[in-house]
Amino acid sequence: CDPKADSTNTLRDGTYIPTVLDLLREKKKVDAHEAIFTGYGDIKCVEAGGPAPGVGCAGRGIITAVQLLKQQNIFEELDLDYVIYDVLGDVVCGGFAVPIREGIAQHVFTVTSADFMAIYAANN
């Protein structure tokens, strides 16, 4: 749900992909397949996106993306082994809990640097 939408760049040779929120802003009806791109090792990549800086809730991006993927049965269709969410660590928002609340995530692992503020944010 990073507004920069660069979470999957390293898996896609540095290229950007359209975010779910960008696609929804362009048109009201979106086929989830329009937001799914294949990266290194056949890894499926989706960027949730976020609001324009200073406008709205960043967590809304992940809520909207997860709902779109779930409504269109993408998790079942792709039969994924793992789903990894890269979320902002500096924002506390209920939207980031959606994968757990919606029953999509069974385990959560927090990965952070050893930087004090990163650990502080992860602890919150």
UniProtKB/TrEMBL annotation:
Keyword Hydrolase appears in the UniProt entry: no
Alphabetical keyword list: 4Fe-4S, ATP-binding, Iron, Iron-sulfur, Metal-binding, Nucleotide-binding, Oxidoreductase
GO MF term (any one): 4 iron, 4 sulfur cluster binding
Cofactor: [4Fe-4S] cluster
Pfam family name, one: Fer4_NifH
PANTHER family on file: LIGHT-INDEPENDENT PROTOCHLOROPHYLLIDE REDUCTASE IRON-SULFUR ATP-BINDING PROTEIN
Family: Belongs to the NifH/BchL/ChlL family.
Name of protein: Dinitrogenase reductase
Organism (species): uncultured nitrogen-fixing bacterium
This protein's encoding gene: nifH
